[in-house]
From TrEMBL:
Keyword hit for Methyltransferase: yes
Name of protein: Phospholipid N-methyltransferase
Keyword Cell membrane attributed: no
Molecular functions per Gene Ontology: methyltransferase activity
Residue stretches making up the Methyltransferase domain: 66-165
Pfam family, one: Methyltransf_25
Alphabetical list of SUPFAM superfamilies matching this protein: S-adenosyl-L-methionine-dependent methyltransferases
Record keywords, A-Z: Methyltransferase, Transferase
Biological process terms in GO annotation: methylation
Length: 209
């Protein structure tokens, strides 16, 4: 046994083995334990939620797809699988551990992971050479965001979307719909039961004038 291993506390050993065995679920759960309010969920979204939310996207006309709060990347590979070869998936998360994890595990050249807040989406996409986003998906816990942050994110999202694009939101409470309604005139709604817990779905469309 090496000195390093011999020196490792038994609890820390169990924790790191468990994290390795659980893979992305372990990283996500650890992120939740460190900051439950910011992460807002214990379990990543189900594939039923992923397929349903993404079914509204016009992939042929999507060059920039943005994701807020990717966590450990539950939506990232499904988005990359559908995205055109010259498209970009830019993800923004406040948790540096998740961004570091994603940067190591997703090696696709169309993928860009940014540590920051969704409220700064306009500056962030501009810094990466884009003026407008075609679609933006959000897994943010809107109901637990600090006061004012939800409306600020919904407003910046509306400005940065191209006409005909959409804001795709999945949430455990219907509250995100209230923030969205201040900016998006047309919002399609749904409920996905096969998810832990079941979640509300919103597709806010930026209509052509
Ligand atoms: C419920 S998790 C979403 C997990 C993942 N997208 C999924 O489908 O399983 C919420 C994520 O939002 C991130 N987050 C919270 N506030 C944020 C903000 N203002 N800007 C960007 N990310 C934020 C958290 O760090 C966390 O990764």
């Amino acid at each position: 046994m090496t000195t390093e291993l011999a020196g490792e506390a038994p609890l820390a050993k169990v924790k790191s083995r468990l994290k390795r065995a659980l893979g992305p679920w372990g990283v996500f759960f650890e992120g939740f334990l460190k900051n439950p309010v910011m992460v807002g969920s214990i379990v990543p979204s189900s594939r039923f939620t992923i397929n349903r939310v993404l079914s509204a996207v016009d992939w042929d006309n999507t060059k920039l797809f943005v994701e807020y709060g990717p966590g450990v990347g539950t939506f990232c590979q499904p988005v990359l699988d559908r995205l055109r070869r010259d498209g970009t998936l830019l993800v923004i998360d406040l948790n540096p551990d998740f961004i570091e994890y994603l940067s190591h595990t997703i090696t696709d050249s169309r993928f860009v992971a940014v540590h920051g807040s969704a409220a700064d989406v306009e500056e962030i996409i501009r810094a990466h050479g884009h003026e407008k986003a075609d679609y933006i998906i959000s897994g943010l816990p809107f109901s637990t965001l600090p006061p004012g942050v939800g409306p600020a994110i919904a407003s910046a999202t509306y400005r940065v979307l191209r006409k005909g694009g959409a804001f795709l939101v999945y949430q455990f409470t219907p509250r995100a719909g209230d923030f969205m309604a201040q900016f998006f005139k047309r919002i399609d709604k749904g409920l996905e039961w096969i998810n832990v817990p079941p979640c509300f779905l919103f597709w806010g469309w930026k209509d052509e004038d």
